[in-house]
Amino acid sequence: MKYAVENKEIILDTSGTECPIPVLKARKLSQNLKDGCIVKVIATDPLAEVDFKHYCEQSQYIYLDCKKEKEKFIIRYKFKKKSS
């Protein structure tokens, strides 16, 4: 899986994929994240914003924002480890 780190944010580029692939890639990435990491997802699927709001709500992550830049959606959320 491709991701990068820039400005202390983990960037996951899911461009060209459609629901549910962006969320599935984010879920796989979460297995390697530390508490408090900011994830920036780049998506082209217009449904990605709604999907990530729901994903964050279900996973108890903190949804930060979504911005549209040209044909891409930039979604940011804060990873939070689940307490046992």
**Over the alpha carbons, how many angstroms does the gyration radius reach?**
12 Å
**SSE string, helix = H, strand = E?**
EEHEHEE
Taking the alpha carbons of the first and last residues, their distance comes to: 28 Å
CATH class placement:
Alpha Beta
Question: Total number of β-strand segments?
Answer: 5
CATH superfamily label: TusA-like domain
The averaged pLDDT comes out at 92
Word description of this protein:
The protein has 84 residues and is an alpha+beta fold. The chain has a single domain, classed as TusA-like domain (Translation Initiation Factor IF3), CATH 3.30.110. Helices cover 25% and strands 36% of the residues. It is built from two helices and five strands. The chain has helices at residues 21-29, 48-59, and strands spanning 3-6, 9-13, 38-43, 62-69, 72-78. The chain has a five-stranded mixed beta sheet, with helices on one face. The longest helix is centred in the middle third of the chain and has 12 residues, at 48-59. It starts with a strand and ends in a 6-residue tail after the last strand. The model has no long low-confidence stretch (mean pLDDT 92).
Essential attributes:
84 residues; alpha+beta; Translation Initiation Factor IF3; 5-stranded mixed beta sheet; 5 strands; globular
Brief account:
The protein is an alpha+beta fold. Helix content is 25%, strand content 36%.
